[in-house]
Amino acid sequence: MRLGKVLVVVFGVLVGIVGVGLVIGGTAGLVFRLAFADRDGFMTSGEIRLLSNAYGIVTQTAWIGGDAPWWRGSRATLRVEVQAADSSRALFVGVADWRDAQAYLAGVARDEVMDVELRPVWVGYRNIPGGPPP
Asked: What residue spans of the chain are helical by DSSP H?
């Protein structure tokens, strides 16, 4: 066999291996999306109930992302759905820069979410004492 034919066979085998890997990866991604995405294409964690007797519930700065090179710089859409336990009471949901939120909530009694576990569902809080909102 000539060197050119050997190189073509080796190149063909390498391309075939890469192709099989891409098919397996794409199939796994499709199965994951079909199994865990809702009808709008969002991945969901299921329902998590947040309960508090304070005037508000806040979280620490949230970091959503990954360390994988393909994730860095990516943008994602985050969807949060909320419903008041008592529909007769007003409910406010806000997203703010940490400094702005701290200034807005200065002196207001609130619970801060410190930890969330999904299995089993558990939420850990830290109470921040204060009074009613201005």
From this structure: 3-36, 98-104
Order of strands across the sheet that contains 57-59: 57-59, 110-118, 121-128
Q: What is the DSSP letter of 125?
A: E
Residue 126: partners with Cβ closer than 8 Å, 6 or more residues away:
111, 112, 114
Gyration radius of the chain over CA positions: 24
Cα 90 to Cα 55, 100, 111: the distances in Å are 11, 22, 18
- Other beta carbons within 10 angstroms of residue 115's beta carbon come to 10
Domain ranges of the chain: 1-36, 57-128
Q: What is the pLDDT of residue 32?
A: 78
The tokens of 31 are what?
């199965």
Better-predicted residue by pLDDT, 57 or 77:
57
Can you name the residues that pair with 27 across neighbouring β-strands? none
Tokens of 74: 């990516």
The residue behind tokens 């701290």 is 102
Q: Are 100 and 94 in contact (CB under 8 A)?
A: no
pLDDT for residue 121: 85
Does residue 70 carry a pLDDT above 60? no
